[in-house]
Amino acid sequence: MSTSRPQLEVRPVDGIIDEPLDIRLSGLTPGERVTVRASVDFNQAGGWSTSVVYEADDDGALDLNAQVPISGAFDRADANAFIWSLRPDDPGANARSLAEGLAPYDLRFRVESGGLVIGQSIVRRAVAEDVKVIEVREPSIQANLFLPNGPGPFPTVLVLGGSGGGFPDRPAALFASHGFAAVSLAYFGVEGLPPELRRIPLEYFESALAWIGEHPLLNAERLAVSGTSRGGELALLLASRYREIRSVVA
After folding, report:
1. pLDDT the model gives residue 95
2. Can you tell me the distance from the alpha carbon of 3 to that of 205, in angstroms, rounded to the nearest whole number?
3. For residue 202, what are the contacts with CB-CB under 8 A and spacing of at least 6?
4. For the purposes of burial, counting CB atoms within 10 Å of the CB of 243, is it exposed (0-12), middle (13-18) or buried (19 or more)?
5. What domains can be seen in the chain, in order of their start residue?
6. If you average pLDDT over residues 38-60, what whole number do you get?
């Protein structure tokens, strides 16, 4: 039997939301069953949680990227499952709000082992701390510009949202966190633009492309467009019409 106290290590302790998790346990009794739970409280979506049961290996250790749980919310060796398997404690919670906002959140881990409870909290960020965000509110363009740290000019991504409207800030923030300038472009659903996704003039996007081409910190020779949902359709449409766009993520 192990005489050492169980230890939990979760990495990164403070990271961007798309950084893979590494979770390890040591100091367990070989063959011991332990319950691992993750939880988070979102301002708009309330509490979310997930849990699984593992069996310690012959060394009394667990690598959650290599070990398959024996029961619980998921059945694969994947530490990131503690994020994608999160479910609302209140079944009526608005799951959509998980993808909104740029505020960091604390992801808490709790391990129950042999009557002991150990835990660790980590910080997950939607945007790197050194990213600059500039509001652009002009008659020809409504956008939030995300700039990574450095002198520029930066390879640039024009980011388009879907049928929800507004500014697609979450994907733009991630692009900027990885070294790209990102233009989070609204094309309906904000003040000064059409209220609905209906009869949006292509000239508006021409104006946005012209604005990018004139901005000293944006490298228009390395311009991509990225869109999700209806924004993915729009990204393909724009790329088929405007040679300024060099690549597409749709």
Report:
1. 63
2. 65
3. 238, 241
4. exposed
5. 7-125 (2.60.40.2240), 132-249 (3.40.50.1820)
6. 89
